[in-house]
Amino acid sequence: xxxxxxxxxxxxxxxxxxxxxxxxxxxxxxxxxxxxxxxxxxxxxxxxxxxxxxxxxxxxxxxxxxxxxxxxxxxxxxxxxxxxxxxxxxxxxxxxxxxxxxxxxxxxxxxxxxxxxxxxxxxxxxxxxxxxxxxxxxxxxxxxxxxxxxxxxxxxxxxxxxxxxxxxxxxxxxxxxxxxxxxxxxxxxxxxxxxxx
Length: 197
Hints:
This protein is of the alpha+beta class. The protein is built from 5 helices and 8 strands; from the N terminus they run H-E-E-H-H-E-E-E-H-E-H-E-E.
């Protein structure tokens, strides 16, 4: 038995436990706000407004639940969104729900979190709202993690271009399984300090 080595190992374990006990978990349900939008946890009081926002089929053309513009499809999306923990996007000026988004798959060891499943009413496309929403989310995420990950279906060129404008870098192709579907996706990442917004 080597006393110095054992003491060194015990000190390392103690420091690790101390750091773990003092670290805050990543809160995916944090209310975030800027001059344009409020992101707030999805609760049932937003169901009807979110349903009304979702009725446009074009919003769902690249989503695994591609019929979410129907009541049946939206209910499936809503149940999943609520179970995982999503954020409702509220236009502060008009005080109405314009979509939803979420943080998920927080990985403490890799210091990463995924942002995704974002949909925004089409009237807000190209208006800077998506950039504003993602800036809020990235700023918050980077107080807790060093990397933010995005998965984008290969056909969704619009989202790929939007992510590139934020500083996201395509890291390669990946197959993601959603129920019985295989989704061909591109993995994007933004490292802390590399975002462009």
